[in-house]
Write a structure and sequence with these properties.
Elements: E1 3-4, E2 7-8, E3 14-16, H1 25-33, E4 38-40, E5 44-45, H2 46-50, H3 54-58, E6 69-74, H4 78-90, E7 95-100, H5 105-108, H6 120-133, E8 138-143, H7 153-162, E9 167-171, H8 186-193, E10 201-204, H9 210-220, E11 224-227, H10 237-247, H11 256-274, H12 276-283, H13 287-290, H14 298-306, H15 310-332
Parallel strand pairs: 3-4, 3-11, 4-6, 5-6, 6-7, 7-8, 8-9, 9-10, 10-11
Antiparallel strand pairs: 1-2
Amino acid sequence: MVKIANIELGDFPLLLAPMEDVSDPPFRKVCKANGADLMYTEFISSEGLIRDAAKSVQKLDIFDYERPIGIQIFGSDIDSMREAAIVSSQAGPDLIDINYGCPVKNVACKGAGAALLRDIPKMVKMTEEIVKATHLPVTVKTRLGWDEDTKFIVETAERLQDIGIKALSIHGRTRVQMYKGEADWTLIAEVKNNPRMQIPIFGNGDIDSPQKALEYKNRYGVDGIMIGRASIGHPWIFNEIKHYMATGEMLAPPTLEERVEVCRQHFTHSLEWKGDKLGIFEMRRHYTNYFRGLPHFKPLRMKLVQSEDIQEIYDTLDEIAQTMAYEVEELDS
């Protein structure tokens, strides 16, 4: 049984990675329904939280059906991060996660996210202050290092454990790599196999199939796997991995009707949480992912992304299920 402090996560938990503009409550709801064991909010700016910025505060919304869930915060100022941890704790999550891995320019170039990989003493001090500031378990998500010359993750993991974090998720790339190339899990395994490490170590990067999940579990010995991009438009990947690990057999891929139904649920949750206007607008980025590979999908996609009428969007989803099913059958026959 893998545990973060007293939070039980099962024998080999699958985590939904925190992803900006993706892992909001509507998306988390469909991932939870499809097997995610632990989820995180989108990362939240510490400065935005302590200044009560509406967008940051809204990201604190969590729901009981999501548990266990962590709120992830990022920032460059230690005092602001400590205050943000206090504010986040009051929102009632199960844990607080610190983002030391985000590589995007407008985060890292402001001294936050992966930028802390260039100043490990500051990272350790910041983490220590956050651990002191909250009664909740604190976890960290980070990368191997800033670049090829600064892959200090083995030593960094020890130092973070020593000041009280309860789990560590490691993306197998440096900041310089961004999301390019292949994730290197050998250093993740080195952290996990370090006899000094007692906390759960979760691996992240390039897991996009049940076969790869099982291969990496066996090869690298991690306590669980965090999945990000592979879940976008494909939230059932969590159940697919669990089924394959339990039986050695692949689940049948979701039918077109099932894809439409999960997309419909996602859209409904989006309306409920964001309101009609924003719910319609922010759902548009997801349609291509849900229906990737469908022949002649473009005209229907254009209807989905251009419509501002809720019923018309539902009707278009029904049309996809009905008309595209014939297209798929024709291809298969």
